[in-house]
């Protein structure tokens, strides 16, 4: 039931973003061009002081979905724009992931022993893991409400960006789960009796736990991806306040680790999900600041206007050139 609701939610988001993004002189194309320019230049510098978040750069209803569509597009096409340097980084990450994979079962057993033999770990793990599910959405709503009530444009914008990171990370991890088809640690194998960190690909029989309940694919961790996606948004937008990144990444790390102690994921699921969430969070933030820069440049353009004035009984035409 949860999977069906989630699928309908994701489908509705995709349809609405595509519908709202079909505009002439699309902002999405401008954002794509700006992305390629900043990537080729070696990155970008974001202006995060409170004055930068104003009526010109705020996210309206239509802008939200245009940015969301742009985020989806950039994330899906990112592999096609990787440089040689980027591919080297991907290769290094792959080596790390394989190394962690060799320890998947050992880490899973350690996590279970730690949870089974420590009441405090059981209580904390259960509560922390929920922060990465429905409570994360509640937290975003609370922060957004605070921003609107107290007219804090920066908190409003940051929370909207965090929600975009949350949505896009959920879609991306769902796609990867469907493709990889990996068994969860809680998967019940009637023959082997013990779950293996095995990949079955997109075509496989439904996974079930020991109680017969259907469970989804394991790779990557959706909780870890969503937690790090939102955490990265707040960490980047408030990097001038060291406590915010510390709290954000600490919370995300605890949520990710709790998925091991709750026997929901293998260690490689966590590493992959956390990394994906981090990269998605960065993309969402950088894309917004490219949008903000475009808005500021639009405002600064000089303009020419024609006026008619009535002076001393005569109509006198005039040209006004405005410098900005």
From TrEMBL:
The keyword Signal applies. Coiled coil: none annotated. This is Phosphatase PAP2 family protein. InterPro entries: PAP2/HPO (IPR000326), PAP2/HPO_sf (IPR036938). The lineage of its organism: Bacteria, Pseudomonadati, Bacteroidota, Chitinophagia, Chitinophagales. Keywords: Signal. SMART domains: acidPPc. Residues 158-285 form the Phosphatidic acid phosphatase type 2/haloperoxidase domain. Pfam families: PAP2. The keyword NADP does not apply. It comes from the Bacteria. It comes from Paraflavisolibacter caeni. Residues 1-21 form the signal peptide.
